[in-house]
Amino acid sequence: MQKLVKDKCENCNKIQQPTGKRNKLCNSCQPKCASCKKRKHLYMGVSYVPIVIYTQFQNVSVSSGNQDIDNLIKATHNNQPKFRLEWIPFEDFTDIKQIGNGGFSEIYAATWKKGKITGWSEKGKRFNRNENQTVVLKVLKDSKDINSTFLKELQNIVKSQPNSYMRRIIQCYGVSQFPKTNDYIFVMSYMPNGSLNDYLSNNFKDVTWKMKLDFLRDIVTGIKWIHQNKIIHRDIHDGNILIGNLESNGPDSNTLIADLGFSKPANDESENSDPKIYGIMPYIAPEVLNKKQYSFSSDIYSLGMIMWELTSGNRPFYDRAYDSQLALDICAKISRPIITEDTPQCWAILMQKCWQSDPLKRPTINEIYD
Fold this sequence. Notes:
This is Kinase-like domain-containing protein. It comes from Gigaspora rosea. Keywords: Kinase, Transferase. Residues 93-370 form the Protein kinase domain. The protein is of the alpha+beta class. It has 2 domains: 67-189, 2-Layer Sandwich (Phosphorylase Kinase, domain 1), CATH 3.30.200.20; 196-369, Transferase(Phosphotransferase) domain 1 (Transferase(Phosphotransferase), domain 1, Orthogonal Bundle), CATH 1.10.510.10. Helix content is 27%, strand content 17%. The chain has helices at 51-58, 67-74, 148-160, 196-203, 209-228, 286-289, 296-312, 324-331, 345-354, 365-369, and strands at 41-43, 48-50, 86-87, 93-101, 105-112, 117-121, 126-129, 133-140, 172-177, 184-189, 231-232, 241-243, 255-257, 264-265. The strands form 5 sheets. Strands 3-9-10-8-5-4 form a 6-stranded mixed sheet, covered by helices on one side. It has a two-stranded antiparallel sheet with strand order 1-2. A hairpin with a 4-residue loop joins strand 6 and strand 7 (126-129). The longest helix has 20 residues, at 209-228. It is globular, with a radius of gyration of 23 Å.
């Protein structure tokens, strides 16, 4: 048996047709039924799975009690197992502890007894799972009656699930429901270092420029995917950027973008008459503060403020009240953060382009990425 070499079959060593997956065997070498000659196994991203199990897996019932939620969860069932959503009974969680509270959600850490799918056990004829996995429970306030905010975020999650780590978007494992309030829950991957705000507040003196570049690369990668899919995030700030396990060399070391709850398609005109302002003031673009529409450039302004925070360890305008006077100064081009002395020139130039008052003068995410 030959070893896998790039996209070559490990059995016959022939180059495979590109499929978007790194299969170990080509179609010709995959095992087939002796009578009907159809493939007995399908590659599902984590391993080869008997096709009869694959069919059962696709037809697993979802019983959230709400048809809209069931349909959105089922929409992911053609994905690889590690990227599909599940309806997760609340009793599957233990050791639940609140770790955050915002205007629209409460955040808990918990142990998921069953855990996410990690592969297929041919010996046990079952899917392997990462049992007793630490996860985050994001409880959306006042969502028991299925408000539009919940469904909108779930739709965005469904869209971003495949290869979410490659896209630097936080991964969601499924949906649950809080028994005390009947509010719905997103079950998300746990990021051990918390938010960018948390990490910089506690560790800034140890953050090297190499680390800052790595953080920025991952953030730009995440925004790039969001914008490529014609979505505006609308709420990029240091609390929605999550830091993984920096001691790992795997995908769990990445910096990821979270909270797609306020994200909307770029062509959504539902708020043209009275645009609503979301987010934390220092990260909100001046045109949005002036009641103009969010745009891709609005996200770029927020990125510029994140870049400054990475150089200073503080939120922009940390020494001022986030009030109407600050909003006026931002809109009047009076207030921008003071660039620190150790900021490399190339970083400073890009950062200043991002926080230009005129949105047309800001670079696109593709220009920044390239």
